[in-house]
Amino acid sequence: MLLENRTAVVYGAGGAIGGALARGFAAEGARCVLVGRTPGPLDTTAAAVRASGGRAETAVLDALDEAAVNDHADSVAAATGSLDISVNVITQEAVFGPLADLPVADVARSVAGTVTSQLITTRAAARHMGKQGSGVILFFGGSDGIYKQPGMGSVQIGMDVVEGIRRQWACELGPLGVRVLTLLTGGIPETFPDAPEMEPAKQAIADATLLGRAATLEDVGRVAAFVASDRARSMTATQVNISCGAHGD
């Protein structure tokens, strides 16, 4: 297995993307620590991982609480002997719509929350990975300087800022043996509400690709597991494109 004897911490594991990442890591042998603010969704993800033969435990905490995140990372590293993979897929209070129509305070609060959460969780992981001389920190969403979509509100802005954070972490942690990457997505239709009015948006994602289909949650988990493994040990400081060709150079 690609991730045997590795410990993966997934912040936002109760959501669709976080759950997919956890299942992907666990399928390759990782011990998964599922973190979020609400017990129910975390328990659901943990049950799915265990039902497939994987290992999972849960922790309820707020990724904006720096002391709690640090204490938890310390406890994970102490209990397992290492903290090998960290990924935070939490988007704080996302607001959508044309920027001209959105209250400045709402957009600023959303972006600030996302950035703060990412800094806290990445810093907590980096402290342990730097000492180990190994580890992988993943971000999700990504940024495309060519393709833009109106109405994304705070979400794409937050992703663009997080990409700047990813670049800085990569150059600072690389000499310590820690890899830092982003999974660049063109959208995952399975994460959309199952409602007739959402079908055009789902179809638009598929239509924008070169393959005529969008990435699935299973794709997300499988690619993440590969990227986090030693088979991708030469990869860092970049985005891994899982957009099925919706984004390209």
From TrEMBL:
Secretion signal, residue range per the UniProt entry: none
Oxidoreductase listed as a keyword: yes
Keywords, comma-separated and alphabetical: Oxidoreductase
Keyword Oxidoreductase: yes
Gene Ontology molecular function: any one: oxidoreductase activity
One of the Pfam families matching this protein, by short name: adh_short_C2
Family annotation (Gene3D superfamilies): NAD(P)-binding Rossmann-like Domain
Family statement drawn from the similarity comment of this UniProt entry: Belongs to the short-chain dehydrogenases/reductases (SDR) family.
Name of the molecule in the record: 3-oxoacyl-ACP reductase
Organism: Pseudonocardia hydrocarbonoxydans
Designated gene of the protein: fabG_6
